[in-house]
Design goal:
single chain; about 375 residues; alpha/beta; 7-stranded mixed beta sheet
Length: about 375
């Protein structure tokens, strides 16, 4: 009998989606549009392809990558006006989330999250022996219940997670509301603001909580290249924090965690701000159309600041099946009778909303 951490025996492994080819064969559809993982449906900047091909043509793979991701680190530090030693760069935010938990959580510590939430926050905490305190979001709006979250924090609490916009609800919290909440917390509680979807927020001029990094030493801000930049396959995420906190995390980072292709791709993507702006523009137009349609058919949904919408209709699984039969795969299982739909490009949006209207007319 192998001995392992008790909790590992109780956790379920992450089940990746069924591969597109097998779904297509099973359903007899020619094309499968995956709208279940919040990827960028507009692809990737062509500059990324150029940079990656240029690297591959001119370099072998026999040398380790730059373990510091120096060029990317310099670009990010310059853009965000932070010191280079305030950045932790990881293999997607998944790795950064894991490193944060490994660094700061001891058995018996507690972590406070709003639910529904991105599953990795709780999962990584459980592996390190934490107690996860789940605070339900405000039912009517999907927004964070900051009052209840404050009550859940006590002297065992090490981390509070704020995903903004929140996955899966899509809701955006104002920087002012977050600032007020952090002001009520003890200094030794780390507040991690995950801004994976922040690029898609168009309702305010400056959506990011970057300013809070200078105001509170216990604030960390996470960003990713997987969503608006369209680099999900290259796995690049990063966190900004005080130099002291970043230094602790760097001690456990794998020495060559980010391969050179990922570094080159992220640098090229970061340079192409026009691709980013175009993605955000198209997404905002589609988001409005979806919200109008959901209002028309009287479906329940939360106002989204992201590139997806969290929505509920009677017997939602049946709607997901109808979409799937047409080749559109959406995310199920995050809350009973709710679906999370990554916003598709315009042509697909027309088809999907027409299916939705027909479905609701039959309810």
């Amino acid at each position: 009998e192998y001995s392992m951490k008790k909790i590992i025996g109780q956790l379920k492994p992450y089940v990746p989606e069924e591969p597109a080819e097998s779904v297509k064969a099973r359903l007899g559809v020619d094309r499968l549009v995956r709208l279940s993982a919040n990827e960028n449906p507009y692809g990737t900047s062509p500059k990324v392809r150029e940079a990656v091909l240029d690297y591959v043509v001119n370099n072998d793979a026999n040398l380790y990558p730059d373990g510091n991701a120096s060029a990317l680190r310099a670009k990010l530090a310059n853009y965000w006006n932070v010191e280079e030693n305030q950045l932790v760069i990881g293999v997607g935010l998944d790795e950064v989330i894991s490193m944060v938990n490994k660094t700061f959580i001891n058995t018996g510590d507690s972590i406070v999250i709003s639910v529904p939430a991105f599953s990795e926050y709780g999962l990584n905490g459980l592996v390190e022996g934490a107690v996860i305190r789940e605070v339900p979001c405000i039912e009517a709006t999907g927004q964070y219940d900051f009052g209840a979250m404050r009550k859940a924090v006590d002297d065992t609490t090490r981390l509070v997670w704020i995903c903004n916009p929140n996955n899966p609800t899509g809701t955006y919290e104002s920087v002012e509301d977050i600032r007020k909440f952090i002001g009520t917390l003890p200094d030794n509680v780390l507040v991690i603001i995950d801004e994976a979807y922040i690029d898609f927020v168009t309702s305010v001029e400056v959506p990011t909580a970057r300013a809070l990094l200078d105001e509170f030493p216990n604030v960390c801000i996470m960003r990713t290249f997987s969503k608006a930049y369209g680099l999900a396959n290259y796995r690049v995420g990063y966190m900004m924090s005080s130099a002291e906190l970043a230094n602790y995390i760097q001690t456990i980072r794998l020495p060559y965690n980010l391969n050179t292709l990922s570094q080159v791709a992220a640098e090229a993507a970061f340079e192409d701000q026009e691709f980013l702006r175009a993605t955000v523009r198209k997404n905002a137009v589609e988001r409005d159309l979806w919200e109008q349609t959901l209002d028309e058919v009287k479906a329940t949904y939360y106002k989204s600041g992201a590139n997806f919408i969290f929505m509920s209709v009677p017997n939602a699984e049946a709607l997901a099946d109808e979409w799937l039969a047409k080749g559109y795969q959406v995310r199920r299982g995050q809350r009973e009778n709710w679906l999370r739909v990554t916003l598709p490009p315009a042509d697909d949006g027309v088809i999907m909303r027409s299916v939705l209207k027909d479905y609701m007319a039959r309810q």
